[in-house]
Amino acid sequence: MIHPEIKFYKYHGLGNDYLVIDPADGTQSLSTFEIQLLCHRNYGVGSDGILLGPLKNKAADFAVRIFNPDGSEAEKSGNGLRIFSRYLWDKGLVSNRAFTIHTMGGVVESRVHENGSMVSVDMGRVSFLSRDIPVAGKLREVINESLCVGGREVVFCAAGIGNPHCVIIRNRISPELARRLGPKIETHPLFPRRTNVQFVKVMDRSNIRIEIWERGAGYTLASGSSSSAAAAVTYRLGLTDRKVMVHMPGGRIDISIRPDFSITLTGPATRIAQGVVDREMFDQQL
Questions:
Q1: What would the pLDDT profile of 258-269 be if each residue is shown by its tens digit?
Q2: pLDDT digits over 96-116, tens only?
Q3: Strand 164-169 and strand 196-204: pairing?
Q4: How far does Cα 173 stand from its chain's mean position?
Q5: Which of the four pLDDT bands, split at 50, 70 and 90, describes residue 279?
Q6: Which among 9, 21, 106, 260 is least buried, having the fewest CB atoms inside 10 angstroms?
């Protein structure tokens, strides 16, 4: 069923943009086709994903479903959660006190501050265990393993924070590298649920730079969960300290890592626009 109209609210977190679609406005669910068309940058509104919520959930104050542009559902998104928190703030549903959000990747705690412009999210604990991420093969911590992709061997670490990540540390990184190797690694058989990919350059003990290929979305200007995974890996390898600033093409996120590898990220969320999708949009074929 195609909805007669869909109201949306558009935000971005460091250039990583999402559409918030509130069920209270009449859209309770979305088909894969609707998601793909809404996210399309030529034939639709254009975004890196869709946040459907707030939804009710007994485990948390609010719940949200996160969808990638290809229509698949994501377990967790750091930028998405900051944007969703900002939306709740804009609607007057939260104050500057901490509140909880249920995602498919677990419950997180969020706090909005600086009059709505900044959001901190406790993302949960990073795991390097293969069964948690997941990564195929025997049970192990996936640290400094080799992977053959695109005719070359790369050394990687894998990390899970409710969603899967493959972290590759290199002296040189670039958007071209992410676009060339990212899609091959995303769909490699080693990752049964596909994976997000981060190419990381360690600048010093307090700063890293990353390029991102996001599962289901492609090359991305910024990612909160990718920043969390990359910072956790560099700390696990002894290359950085527990407080790390992650530099991305879209901007910077502050990451704090506790001794148990629980992550708090802090960054901006910016409101762009709101509107109503015309019914005619759904008469197109992708």
A1: 999 999 999 999
A2: 899 999 999 999 999 999 889
A3: parallel
A4: 20
A5: confident
A6: 260
CB 258 within 8 A of CB 265: no
On the CB side of 245, how many CA atoms lie within 13 Å of its CA? 7
Separation CA 175–CA 153 (nearest Å): 19
Pairing of the two strands 164-169 and 152-160 = antiparallel
pLDDT value at position 280? 86
Long-range contacts of 25-30 (CB under 8 A, 24+ apart): 27/3, 27/52, 30/67
Write out pLDDT tens, residues 117-146: 999 999 999 999 999 999 999 999 999 999
- Has residue 231 got a pLDDT over 70? yes
Q: Sign of the C-alpha dihedral, residues 43, 46, 49, 55?
A: negative
DSSP E strands in the chain: the ranges are 6-13, 16-21, 50-55, 62-67, 73-74, 99-103, 106-113, 118-125, 145-149, 152-160, 164-169, 196-204, 207-214, 218-220, 243-248, 251-257, 262-268, 270-277
Domains, the chain, ordered by start: 6-117+269-283 (3.10.310.10), 125-266 (3.10.310.10)
